[in-house]
Automatic annotation (TrEMBL):
Residues 54-303 form the G-protein coupled receptors family 1 profile domain. PANTHER family: CHEMOKINE-LIKE RECEPTOR 1, CHEMOTACTIC RECEPTOR. Keywords: Cell membrane, Disulfide bond, G-protein coupled receptor, Glycoprotein, Membrane, Receptor, Transducer, Transmembrane, Transmembrane helix. One of its GO terms (molecular function) is adipokinetic hormone receptor activity. GO terms for biological process: glucose homeostasis; inflammatory response; phospholipase C-activating G protein-coupled receptor signaling pathway; positive regulation of cytosolic calcium ion concentration. It is a multi-pass membrane protein. Pfam families: 7tm_1. Belongs to the chemokine-like receptor (CMKLR) family. Belongs to the G-protein coupled receptor 1 family. GO terms for cellular component: nucleoplasm; plasma membrane. The lineage of its organism: Eukaryota, Metazoa, Chordata, Craniata, Vertebrata. It is found in: Cell membrane. This is Chemerin-like receptor 2.
Length: 354
């Protein structure tokens, strides 16, 4: 008789059949999931605590305070993608904290998973666009001056969001809730009966995530920066570029955070054929998912720590905001004092009036 277990990797979990006893499953879960859950929760919570204010600050300054340029539009939309995602993180934190019980209903199950995929694809696509933009701007200045306009940038941004929505949309169809062992789980219902269709759809979505959401963008970024290093005659031109080190750090952070997740997701496909590494995947998938989620709070920190231009603009904007606030407080205080003085004067006049 088949027993059932399920993985919770944040995106692609659903019920798998295995050929070993329930006692072995329970022992494995007691040995691994306690520490894994706590570490995962710590990563998710830290991503939320740092990601919401960090991305909100980037959105505020790049979207409302600073001059609109092509570069600020790229970083604005990258921050928007991360901000939308971290806003949904409390749902996933609650899911893990309640031992993978989903009480929020089917529609939020679909929306939460869709937002996670949308963030992944939008983030890596914007990083790819930023890399291509840097390459064109430095290597083909004439072409860049002619076509690197705000109008064209807005068109590219629209296309990036559209493609990310299309690629992530299958989650809205497949994601469902299921009552299992007094728990409601949020999982991918690829097919209720046919195992062949389940495996095929799981393989297709996993490899689509890997190729379109990781491999091709990563190769594009590596090629762009390699060509920049080779073709720029004066290396100082490259290294002193006001965006270069920030972009490079953001790309490296994406690679470090997302590589384990994609590797474990591909490794997970082998569980259909062999359960030998089942416990490794049980621990690796939640941890790699937590590391991937943590990437959403890293970008604003990297802007502040690395980009001197961002630091200068941030200090200037904060100084202006404080100056404006102090001016309002001072004006309010002066007005209040004048009003009180006027009231006192009128009261004196009334008392003196016969």
């Amino acid at each position: 008789m088949e027993d059932f277990d399920y993985f919770f990797d944040g995106f692609e979990n659903y019920t798998y059949p295995f050929e070993y006893s329930q006692e072995e499953l329970e022992l494995g879960e007691k040995a691994h999931l306690g520490a894994v859950q706590w570490i995962s929760l710590a990563l998710y919570s830290l991503a939320f605590v740092l990601g919401v204010p960090g991305n909100a600050i980037v959105i505020w300054f790049t979207g409302f305070k600073w001059e609109k340029t092509v570069a600020t539009l790229w970083f604005l939309n990258l921050a928007i993608a991360d901000f939308i995602f971290v806003l949904f993180l409390p749902l996933y934190i609650s899911y893990v904290a309640m031992n993978f019980h989903w009480p929020f209903g089917t529609w939020l199950c679909k929306a939460n998973s869709f937002i996670a995929l949308l963030n992944m694809f939008a983030s890596v696509f914007f990083l790819t666009v930023i890399s291509l933009d840097r390459y064109i701007h430095l290597i083909c200045p004439v072409f860049s001056q002619r076509y690197r306009t705000l109008k064209n940038a807005l068109f590219v941004i629209g296309m990036v969001w559209l493609v990310a929505v299309i690629i992530g949309s299958p989650t809205l169809y497949f994601r469902e809730t299921l009552d299992l062992n007094n728990h409601t789980i949020c999982y991918n219902n690829f097919h209720p009966n046919d195992t062949g269709i389940i495996l095929m759809r799981h393989h297709v979505l996993t490899w689509t995530k890997f190729v379109l959401g990781y491999l091709l963008p990563l190769l594009t970024m590596i090629i762009c920066y390699s060509l920049l290093a080779l073709q720029v005659k004066k290396r100082v031109t490259l290294t002193s570029s006001k965006h270069f080190w920030t972009i490079l750090a953001v790309v490296l952070a994406f690679v470090i955070c997302w590589t384990p997740f994609h590797l474990f997701s591909i490794w997970e496909l082998s569980i259909h054929h062999s359960s030998h590494f089942h416990h490794v995947l049980q621990a690796g998938l939640p941890l790699s998912t937590g590391l991937a989620f943590f990437n959403s709070c890293l970008n604003p920190l990297l802007y502040v720590l690395i980009s001197k231009k961002f630091q200068a603009r941030f200090r200037t904007s904060v100084a202006e905001l404080l100056k404006h606030t102090l001016r309002e407080v001072s004006w309010s205080g002066t007005t209040s004092e004048q009003f009180k003085h006027s009231e006192a004067k009128n009261l004196c006049l009334l008392e003196m009036t016969p």
